[in-house]
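## retry 2 of 3
previous attempt timed out at serialization; input unchanged, resubmitting
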Amino acid sequence: MPVEWQPVRQARTHELVLQSIEEQVFAGKLRAGDRLPPERELAPVFGVSRSALREALRVLETIGVLVAQPGRGPDSGARIVRNPDDALGRLLRLHFALGSYSLHDVMEARVALERASFAAAATYASEEDLDEAGAVVHRMSQQGILAQEFNELDTRFHVKVASSSGNALTSTLTAAVRESVRPLILRALEEVDDWPATQAQLNSQHAEMQRLVRIGRGDEAADLVEVHIRGFHGTLVDEDRTAADGDGGA
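## retry succeeded, writing output
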């Protein structure tokens, strides 16, 4: 049989730089906190232009593994960091807006992640974690609070519980998934007919979830957070499906 040759992929210059830096990280030669050499030194090492190097560094900064500080002082230059939360949240938010994931996908991911985090937090959360979560719930219960602040605090509460679960990846994913739908949830909160009643209902659930975590009843906390998510978030899913049906969608 004759050999069937396939065309090879031509990588752009900055992708080769990215690959080289990734290899150094995988090999353990670059770690969080390490600084990269200045551009004027690093570009000749790679054999690329400084513009191609900058493009590669911008990609690394966008995905949360590098921070670039302009200037000439001791803190200037590019430094390897570990900052996945903001990067993943931004990435998921964009893909959600582009339609890569449906509201139903996001809701099911939230349910799975937050059931796990609330159950684990009941075992692993420290008193300090619990006090911080309780303080957030208290602020959410204040009369006159607007939907925008409530939504910010809502996100902070769920992320705080996840961060106290003892699993850093669960915490990061929870933050990213919740962040991806934050604008949509805010719009829904602002459009409810009776905001004070909605605030009271949601916050009573927050308070009970926080209480169950504090007294170590993780399974009950997990059940309640699922009811909580499927309640308000579920109405968004139903509205989205109704709109899709009205547009002739499946």
